[in-house]
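Hi everyone, sorry if this is the wrong subforum. Our group has a chain we'd like a structural model of before ordering constructs, and none of us has done structure prediction before. Sequence below.
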Amino acid sequence: MDPTTKHRVLAGVLAAGLYAGGFAAGRFLHEGPAHAASPVQTTATTEAPEAHADTRGLPSFAGIVASAAPAVVHVGTVSVANTADDDQGSGDPSGDDGPFGPNSPFHGFRMPRDPRFGGGEARRGAGSGFVIRKDGVVLTNNHVVEHAKEITVSLSDGRKLPAKVLGRDPKTDLAVLKIDSKEPLHVVQMGDSDGLSVGDWVVAIGNPFGLDNTVTAGIVSAKGRAIGQGPYDHFIQTDASINPGNSGGPLFDEHGNVVGINTAIFSQSGGNIGIGFAIPINMAKELVPELEEKGHVTRGWLGVSIQKLTPELAESMGTEGGQGALVAGVTPDSPAAKADVQPGDVIRRWDGKAIDEPGTLSMLVAGTPIGRTVPVELSRDGKSKDVEVTVAKLADDESASDDGPAHRGKWGLSLRDLTPDERRERDLASGTGVLVAGVVPDSPAAEAGVKAGDVVLQVNRHPVGSAAALQAEAGKAAADKPLLLLVRPAEGGDRFAALSPR
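Answer:
Right subforum, don't worry. Here is the predicted structure as tokens:
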């Protein structure tokens, strides 16, 4: 299923249902006397019942919608599928089955082949986005535009404008687009996602199933959720209905400020069950300038694999407290290794900031300037230890520079060797495979469906076990012939990918 046409759904299930639940009363519950057991408890009183009646009802979001909806846009895409990519879906923005189910007469419909793209199968996808600046900068999800050959932004006034990608960040699922408009553009007001509290009202506006400017509302169910989508998971969880086509749309607070970008839902039934996730807008605000300027995000690298410190692990390792990030492995010659960080250490503080969970450490390291030396507080064998770490550049960014994709070679691949732990996790023999750390947009690798996180097992039918070996085999290939890779995606299932030369 083509990521440009589908809404990301956890547990491998594409949602096609509509949320039917009601609102939780939350902060609008009756605020009676401290001794009252509930808003409807009867107490002896000589006053008229009306004196204690809470006249406040559920809020109206009409004002938010009127002012904010014109800045919400529909993002339409055209991508190309090869016959080897038949598992990427039908092109319906709702997924393979569409909103009408597998028995619909429209099930299995395919877009006609398009000669503009070499006869490949043109597939249309859809998502949402929102204008953040008057010069036409639009924010959306990376998975909405990741493989798009054409992008069209439809405004609330009916205009349709071509868009180009200024930058993408697959790790946080953010993408920045640019449109040029002769007429003034409506823009959203950016909010503060850190100021949200669990129970606060939020409003989602987007284009689920292609239904423009659909409004749903709910509350913040949780903050800082890690859902297994990447090392920088820090989602806002909400019960506001989010469905296919909502991807990339804004999540507003009750004052009409954007606090999140709707990205994913959890569903085991295929329908929206009130568990949706949004990227905090504060994270996006930090990344947008670099995405605009460079097209990608440069992150700091420590060189450790980490996990949550459970009470059982803490007890077995003789350390106190459940906070911190447990170091499970250290990459040789990494900044961590050079600072004498060891497996079994618990990282408690990074540059003076407390580490409450592994995700916090990942985000702090990623945001640390390259080359900076920071103090790190460890716990080793129950004793405190202080070290200093000089942060390096994350491997998948090492070949990207201001000079553009040429530094990733003509194939558009950024590679690095797998660690022993990573090989064990992927069930690979020692000396087998090379990790794809990054893929340049619109490169031969991207067009062949190779993604960051894939492992390359063979090049032109020759096994490879290191980035150097892969580059050597690729160098032997004829300049005018496709490069044949055998790759193992993160979700499993080996497949061949042919990278066409340019």
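For your construct planning: The two ends are 26 Å apart (CA to CA). Residues 281-294 form the longest helix (14 residues).
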